[in-house]
């Protein structure tokens, strides 16, 4: 099979490697595609702790495809089932996963892109955000995740204020149900705008979905007394400082919404399947760029550089 691996900072190659055999309790998936996650960008940049080359397929974890083979004891899926899968070497034509990490897709979704991991991540963040009708919710950072959360929050009856750097992202936020949009330009101006929109009360819920220091600082400033600050951004480039005086003074609840329990991940994917299959959520317009496996490097560069019109990259494998 073909598989991609990183061979140095900003360098990848496609190699031929053996198709893996499923062990007991495992499923082999013939992959149709894999989403490109921003968490790949730090390994792609080549930090000191990174070791090259990576294993074939490594870093890919947003996959979907068709069940190709079953290991001993697997009874929950069948060969030929279309599935979303939580696996970790999915920049390849085949990957293995525990049967418990495979979610069967309904026929209506078969053959359609379905990067289960980020969709499930959005559902889990939304659940932990405790968003209710009538609340004011600000979402700082409208990428793929922020756009989906905008839709979920607005459908839940919240008034959504979307804050993002790019005009394209703000257009997406409006299409996904945001009541107000604010360019992420001047710190003080954003605070004053939100103050005006909320009658000086600020927001019941703030979801920070960027993963950088300044947006995290801004999110805290926009959280009302006894509000909830939900950290959805992936902060992997170093330590963070927080304004503990402000957090204390306002009595803010701070929620790190990243899940690590595979069972919770999979539950989120199941909820995403239900939402998309029922028509409550349509992520299709958010898949803006598609690449073959041989152009994974371009997909990673565009995920980093965010050219105009870019929101989410998919690598197609079949």
Automatic annotation (TrEMBL):
Keyword Phosphoprotein attached: no
Annotated Gene3D superfamilies: Medium-chain alcohol dehydrogenases, catalytic domain (3.90.180.10)
Domain Alcohol dehydrogenase-like C-terminal: 145-244
UniProt keywords, alphabetically: Metal-binding, Oxidoreductase, Zinc
Listed cofactors: Zn(2+)
Domain Alcohol dehydrogenase-like N-terminal: 23-88
GO terms of molecular function: oxidoreductase activity; zinc ion binding
PROSITE patterns: ADH_ZINC
InterPro entries linked to this entry: ADH-like_C, ADH-like_N, ADH_Zn_CS, GroES-like_sf, NAD(P)-bd_dom_sf, Zn_alcohol_dh
Family as reported in the entry's similarity comment: Belongs to the zinc-containing alcohol dehydrogenase family.
Identification of the protein by name: Zinc-binding dehydrogenase
